[in-house]
Amino acid sequence: MTLLSHARYCDEILAQTDALRAVLTGADLTATVPTCPDWTLRELAVHVGAAHRWAGEIVRSRATEEVPEDEVPGAEGPDGEDPAALDAWLAEGAAAVVAALREAGPDTEVWTWVTERRTAFWARRMTHETAVHRADAALAARAPYEVDAEVAADTIEEWLGIVALAQEEGDPEAADLRGGGRSLHLHATDVPGAEWLIEFGDDRFTWRHAHDKATVALRGSLTDLMLVFNRRLEPTSSRVEVLGDAALLDFWLDRSSFG
To answer: Region Disordered: which residues (predicted)?
Structure first.
């Protein structure tokens, strides 16, 4: 699996937002989101639209330091409770961040919260921010959810990178993801080659693409692996299979639950 192109990420931000808007159309926007229980569906949508506007402002202004979210125009969401206004607001925010990203290209230097200070970071991050929260919305609305295989695989790999960064920076939960001799294998049953082996070393964890025996294996469709990995689907679901030491999988999920 490799990174998607900058153009593909831009296209996906729009596609994932359109799919989120479709889920929201006709749904009860006051419903609680099971995977984000502090939010209603409307609040989830506002979170996504605000993230688009925040990232778009960073890219558009070529920010060299963090932009306070309360200084981003329109990030608070549309006035009133009109679903049509929310839909239009979501579409507008996605279009704006994509326009900024396309104009800047992938290599323009901007502030990010990682060591990679390029606009490419924001294209990738907003793709997966939208795709995962679309899953939240689908669960709340009891709507079907599917994501393209390349996007699902990249969502897993982006999250592995985020957890590794947290470990390097001394996050206490991520710091526990070590200990020689243990490993976790993710195996997509519907996409050839979509496999990851996460190995717990003495000081940190590492990962690679491999088909190998592990302490615990998680098997299922690539979409469902992505959902479990992002804590949107319980590993006890009948849609996936856990082989081996299930406690190690729980250990990983518990300690990579930040963010």
So the answer is: 61-81
